[in-house]
Structures
1.
Amino acid sequence: MSECCTPGRGAVGTVDPTDIAVQHVEPPPTSDEAAGRLIDVGTQMFTMGSVGPLAIPGDGEGPAHVVRLASYSIAPYTVTNAEFADFVAATNYRTDAERFRWSFVFGPFLPDDFPDTRGVADAPWWRQVFGADWRHPDGPESTLEGRSDHPVVHVSWRDAVAYCDWRNVRLPTEAEWECAARGGLSGCDFPWGDELEPDGRHAMNVFQGTFPAMNSAADGYAGTAPVDAYPPNELGLHQMTGNVWEWCADWYSPTYYASSAEVDPPGPATGIARVMRGGSYLCHESYCRRYRVSARSSNTPDSSSGNVGFRVAAGGVSG
């Protein structure tokens, strides 16, 4: 796990195990309508992973290897606050952040007079904030006003799976996610090519300035951005890098690629953390270059923070 990117719930000590059993929800009769909003990727063969100069030691981005995928489809956007609100209204679902009663918030987003909170030892900009959850992304006094089309955050892997169960969809596998993010480009760092800012323009929402104290927001956003704020890749998928980390279905292992299947790899059979992909609005080249299509991170299934969301998929061998 990379606590600089997304801290695990155990990063501030022992968690309160009260009322954290996995919740199960029943899909509504019309849940298959979600499939109409997915983009058909089809059957694919692509080179997954990287051993390039930007690869981060220990993350397990390599070796690069050819993967074949059965036909699947994936959402053009991450799940929005409005969509997640519909889910909660229909099911009365309570997220892990709500049941634990806290989540991690990026410290500079808190008001100057906010009471002192516990931080993560190796990443003190992450603060344990009681009352932070998907409805209150920057702490208990914040709201979703003006953010209905922003990605839902403070959702754990378990929350994402519950939403998928309700919509009769699923999380993409790590291989499906990377294939979709590449959008048909081979060996490139980003969904559009190798330049971080092609032709001098900002193509994704990442940290601009001096991390963590000064964010110039030169790309237009200091926090999350609307899910369609930047042009899509060649498949029509928006913000596969930057904005928010995206949960994938797989368990995480830094050594998995060395022996993974060449056809529809399902990820390790067991683990303690789930894969996350894509980076977020807090990624910065000075400490976290995980805003690339091959970059990997992970977190425990019950963890949540203000820069993690998800998108959904269907079909394939997992559908």
2.
Amino acid sequence: MHKILTLNSISVAGLEHLPRDKYEVASEIQNPAAILVRSFKMHDMAIPSSLRCVGRAGAGVNNIPVDKMTSMGIPVFNAPGANSNAVKELVIAGMLIASRNICQAWEFARSVEGDDAAIDKLVEAGKKDYAGTEISGRTLGVIGLGAIGRLVANAAIGLGMRVVGFDPGITVQGAWQLSSLVEPARSVEELLSKVDFVTMHVPLVEGTRNLINAQRLAGMKKGVTILNFARGGIVDDRAVCDAIAAGKVGAYVSDFPSNLLKRHPRVITLPHLGASTEEAEDNCAVMVCDQVRDYLENGNILNSVNFPEVIMPREAPVRVTVANRNVPNMVGQITTQLAAAGLNIVDMLNKSKGDVAYTLLDVDKVVGEDVVQAIRSIDGVLSVRVI
């Protein structure tokens, strides 16, 4: 029986992929083999020695101590693309409400007083203050052409926009899913100089912190609209507010409210709604539960942020999994221990990602605890499992 600890409410649609005859799932459980989490901050929690993997029902993993998990040989799974459509729709909505001054107009319409005839007169007189622009024919810049960025770019093309994209790490598979009408930019600066709207879809790492800053704002077109549905910290909020005051930025739409932003007349703040749809929560939960289950039952790794993708069909009744530092001669030392125990390797797959490597070995008979301990004692081995 695999024990699963949930640190947040996880969609039932996902939990149904963990059959009750094999899994015990609870918000309070001792010695869990896996943790399922959404937004709970794990950085200060004690990590149980029983833990084998972490599943994040979403894309970002800033709330998980990934480096610590890696040092313990624990893969962290996420659900890239599962919430992409939800975020895409909100980005498009953000462009529309900003370009047509919807929020400001709504507040005005709510504030008018009098009988219906008086209200009609006030509305007709006041509507000129909320005239906007159409997005068709305007240029959208998309920084980050992953699962979300591609959908946003393609949707904008469908709405008649010109789209410029930048992503030096785009994969061949990702490029196939991108409209051929999206124009490539060679740098962030080149992209920003061309656009009327810009949206970011990148993780928050040291290289993307304050990606939109005072220096880059200075090179943008007057009246640009900035949209941030990625992560707080990617945009320098103070610099944007200063640029609004200077007439450089027309509007800012952010999914990350703060005291600086929440009542600004040219800023629209939303309560981190990017992935907050029933469909997205279901999709994320299903994806991550399937990945956690496949790892616990078969040792396969798919969509891990800290481990390589390693998927191998089962060719024998016993499987050994080994996570180790990515240094020379690890596979040789591991297979030597198996050979010394008289175990024949039926199939094997080894891959690495950065400083960590992972190996699946299918063997022909039962692996004793003495063999497990011998492998675990190899310098550089982070974790060993027998399935």
